[in-house]
Amino acid sequence: MADNITVSVLGTGIMGAAMARNLCRTGHTVRVWNRTQEKAEPLAADGAHVAATPAEAVSGADIVLTMLLDGPATLEAMTAAAPGLEAGTIWLQSTTAGSEALAGLVDFALHHGLRFVDAPVMGTRAPAESGQLTVLAAGPQDVREPVASVFDAIGGRTLWLDEDGASGAASRLKLVCNSWSLAITHGTAEALALSKGLGVDPRKFLDVMAGGALDCGYLHTKAGVIMDDDYTPASFGLSTAAKDARLILEAAAENGVRMDAAAGGAERFRRAEEQGHGDKDMAASYFASFDN
Which of 27, 118, 223, 283 is paired with 182 by a 20 to 30 Å CA distance? Predict the structure, then answer.
């Protein structure tokens, strides 16, 4: 059980809500805020205090955890929270923000005297709900003990990468990991689309892959979504994945790396969004293989 730690969670979407719920279950005092308050209100049944404003949410918090759409949304929420922030508060920044936006968040933390931890997480809806996310963390040695109960509540494993949260080590690794998960998603979507086009039973494709060197759990998870035509509720939303794809391409370009497959994947997400699939699971990349 947590030892009287108050945690403020800003952002209660797919991931943030699950993280807040697990924090409540492990004895933390939890305050939550979301731009659309209706998405935060169900957490009251789990014991969370639903705040009307970011400033109210962070008031008196020992730790602030942000899990919003992107860097600009995070900076906007933290700016609104500023009147309630106290110097010395630990800020766990878990949004996939990208390198450029992260710099602005670090500057905000320095200006307000916050102890900044770059802490993106790997995992989707199911591991978030079961508290089995992988936390990628970078931050000073002296915050590791205070945040341990939080990371234990939301994750099954924590990988500390650097003692300087401002280094961006965790956020850079998150982009690399996400590039792989998006590649598997698009590969699965295209293989099943080709199966349909060629009149091949997709289950035969999965049977051939099963247990071999090319097999993996994510293949079967995303293939199941497509074959069952069951894209909601999203495990990882397509529009959020499209944002991550853009961040990956921007970071690659800034560092002289060509990402042809990633660029093709970003275009698939763009077409699927245009077709109206943005709120569905990112496996809806499948629809980008067809004209409608």
Answer: 118
